[in-house]
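STRUCTURE REQUEST FORM
Protein name: Alanine--tRNA ligase
Source organism: Paraconexibacter antarcticus
Requested output: structure tokens
Priority: standard
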Amino acid sequence: MTSDEIRETFLAFFEAHEHKRQRSGSLVPAAFDPSVLLTTAGMHPLKAYFMGLEAPPAPRLTSCQKCFRTPDIDNVGVTARHLTFFEMLGNFSLGDYFKQGAVEFAWDLTLNGFGFKPEDVWVTVFEGDPAMGIGADQEAIDAWLSVGVPRERIIECPASENFWWSGETGPCGPCSELYLDRGLEFGAEDDLPGGENERFLEFWNLVFMQFDQDEQKTLTPLPNQNIDTGMGLNRMAVILQGVETVFDTDQFVPLMDLGRELATVAEPEERSLRILADHTRGMTFLIADGVVPSSEDRGYVLRRLMRRAIQHGRRIGAPHGFLPRYVDVVLDTMGTAYPELHTEKERILKWVRAEEEGFGRTLEQGLGLLEQHLEKGDLDAAAAFQLHDTFGFPIEMTVEVAAEADVTVDEAGFKVLMDEQRLRSAGGAGAKGRVGGAADLVRGLSNKPTTFTGYEHLDQHTTVA
Ligand code: ATP
Ligand code: MG
Ligand code: MG
Ligand code: MG
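Status: completed
Returned output:
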């Protein structure tokens, strides 16, 4: 099954069961929702319905939502299953069916729609947590037993795995997840679902949205008992196309091929090729939804993604001006499903070219400086600050390159220097000027003042993982 067929199979199944099909919402969340920087799950655009703030167009909805998860950046190219940008398929019940109904639909579609063998599918449920005042989810266990899942393939897990929060505050609830046992070639005899192993691949999460969490972390029951599910389209493609990783699926093969074509080093690292494939998709979709590179919030996520891609492009020896080539392939593979990519093509290319030109110019010098420090085996706060301020290196990139040479960076010291700089620039006319240099050129492209707001603002809360 192609990715397009997986998407259509899912949406058509739920339409046939009276769900109203919704278009994907933007990657930029609605203005009323400050709980996340970017859309990380299918329920985000529907949040007002879950919270009872707005009436839903129908009690049953289904969608394929564009998602972006910043915390998964470091997993890209390392695990088989993580992307930053991915598509999430979902079915939603707003006060209509609850656990039993959600389990019955999930089991039917998994077996009869996607043809999984029942003996390969395992499920997890919430084991309960006395501190939260919630017991084991017996209702979910009973629902799985009722459709024929044997008790030994129903695993109870803690809140870290089986309680889902849509953000720091807002709708949340226990969840139940479906895993496929990919067999011993992917892991060990005693592996179980819910762990970090690659043998059991999590492909679908059924969230039983029944609470609203406030700032004090108090849970209050929502007006309705709701269902919110999320199935990873790209993970389904791994399974249904019989491949090992998301990078071997139909949406990614043309991007991986392009990387090999552009590479001039003898043996380009697989990880770099994967990071390039993922990040170029991510930047294309983010820009199409109106994000522009900057030093703050979601603009910083985009900038970090672009600069990391440019750095890995250099590692594989891609010629200057390579990013637009990736954008073209993303448009070829995704443009039919997401026509906004075509509408926004010129803007996407403009930002991508500008960033590659600006940062590409300072990258070599910055890496040279970084190299000198790494040889000494030490990277202090002042060096990290200089790399950031003069050469435009996101701190995460400095930390990552240093870690490869087993060197740790004084991140706390870096933050102090950044705070000092922020105070200076807030000081107006009397403030000391910045270091200046090539990074100003990069900065100038974004038309925004430089204020580093730090990694803590980049949270994309999902499960407490
Ligand atoms: P994992 O434990 O593998 O990180 P998760 O538990 O964080 O996944 P959920 O928050 O439950 O994921 O999201 C619902 C579904 O979305 C997952 O079951 C999976 O199929 C898909 N998904 C989640 N994160 C990613 C990602 N980074 N890349 C691709 N698909 C993802
Ligand atoms: Mg998980
Ligand atoms: Mg999950
Ligand atoms: Mg995760």
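Reviewer notes: Residues 69, 72, 81-83, 86, 88, 202-205, 230-232, 234-235, 462-463, 465 surround adenosine-5'-triphosphate (ligand 1) (CB under 6 Å). Residues 62 and 442 are 42 Å apart (CA to CA).
Form closed.
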